[in-house]
Sequence to fold (261 residues):
Amino acid sequence: MNEAKSCCQRLSGSTLKWIACISMLIDHTAFLLIGCGVLKTISPDTPAFQMWLKLYFTMRCIGRIAFPIYVFLLTEGIVHTSSWKRYAIRLGVFAVLSELPFDWMMHTQQSSVWEDQNVFFTLLIGLITIKSAEFICSTAEKTDERLQLFFWLAATAAGCITAELMNTDYSYIGVILAVLLYLYRKDRQKQSIFGFLWKLCHVGRTSYILGTAAAFLLIHAYNGQKGSSAGKYLFYGFYPAHILLLCLLYQILFAGSFLQT
Fold:
């Protein structure tokens, strides 16, 4: 049994980070360069359009792998960090740094700041939601489990409302996913199943189910090891950097110049 378990759990945290980064790059490339670019330059009645459309949805399906892994790594970070407050500050800093590139990608122009918020804000809200619930529960250790459940539900509701009001990427879906993965952190199987079922409710397209399932299969294969700590901030910086690069490519390829608005 232990040998079978070890065979299934082979991926370190750093490996999952790389998988998430590559998946996210594929997803955003499809969204911006194909969806907002190529498909708008080709007539829908042509075979070329159908070919690009299939490629678009295939790449976006692969992109469904990224977000669940990032949320999972957030919960692992909460468990193992020496200071969740410093962790929150780090997420907040990169949320601010990522906002202009994110808005540029979402609106394909250098404006609309704060209309939509990037995924770092969702992760930050998820972290604060979890720590708030834990703090409230710790002040009432002698209460019954029903009251503890109420505290978790109240904190999660507050987190969801905050994400909705801020219009963060994945919004309440990401906050609830973070809470689910954290609460089931000691049981990888339940963590993967309940996480998948929750995300399945918001998969968007039936064709995206495969990407969502792949994400949780990869999470289930996590071996509990952090892996290489080299390039710690590279994974944070990759998010705004790759979005900025894609936006520049979009402007050059489809708008004539990155200075054009």
Q: What stands out?
A: The CA atoms of residues 129 and 156 lie 6 Å apart. The chain has a mean pLDDT of 90. The two ends are 60 Å apart (CA to CA).
